Amino acid sequence: MNHFALHHWPLRLASLLACLLFWQLAASLRLDFGLFTFTYVPTPGAVLEAAWQLLQSSKLLPHLGSSLGRVFAGYLAAALVGVLLGLAIGRSKWAEDSLLPPLEVLRPIPAVAWIPLAILMFPSSELSMIFITFTGALFPVLLNTIHGVEGVDRRLVASARSLGAGRLAILREVVLPGAAPSIVTGLAIGMGTSWFCLVTAEMISGQFGIGYYTWESYTLQNYPDIVVGMLLIGLLGMGSSGLVRHLGGLVTPWYRVKGKA
């Protein structure tokens, strides 16, 4: 399905406008709902002005460059390791028994818990932030790859083997095409989690980056800049995940999502 079909955009734009309208009213009227309050939340106009000032300043490019470099370094390493490990674990019972248990122990550990150890393990804060991004992206890629490999129809593998295909040929011609949609899903999810983990690391260890900019704005009580940083993170995460899905769609033209009108 084409996610950019024109007939979907009116509803999507209306949804965004409704959210902006609620935000404007709640922030302007300083609504207090008891459990949460909009008393100190800046209005969309204040955020737009802060965003314009950031665009005109010399700070935006260093922050963007730092965050993008860290994300893609950690993400690409995680994509390579996650896919290779996933293929091995999905195809080999020995690999599953020896590799999956320690990985499952590490998987629930949140990114913020890795920060002290990463600082001790790596000689620079830059490498430690890339490592934290790597850990965030690794497990979605790994688990989706395992799921995709294990979901390949065994009859297809048996048929290829009966026709004389070797292990590499079965992997290349049967397993990878069958698991590719699940791998692409894992890669897209991993991109989003890598942004989440990077921002956590930058808030503590960074000197440049969107996460550092957001945290610095909070410490300086520049509330509109906080929202600007949050929106930048959301847009960058959405855009990069969309790019991964688009590229994945190009390499899996046989796969189409069904069930939506």
Automatic annotation (TrEMBL):
Coiled-coil parts of chain: none
Name used for this protein in its record: Aliphatic sulfonates transport permease protein SsuC
Keyword line: Cell membrane, Membrane, Transmembrane, Transmembrane helix, Transport
Transmembrane segments: 38-55, 67-90, 105-122, 129-149, 169-189, 227-248
Segments forming domain ABC transmembrane type-1: 64-244
Keyword Transit peptide: no
Family: Belongs to the binding-protein-dependent transport system permease family.
Record Pfam families: BPD_transp_1 (PF00528)
GO biological process: alkanesulfonate transmembrane transport
Species name: Zestomonas carbonaria
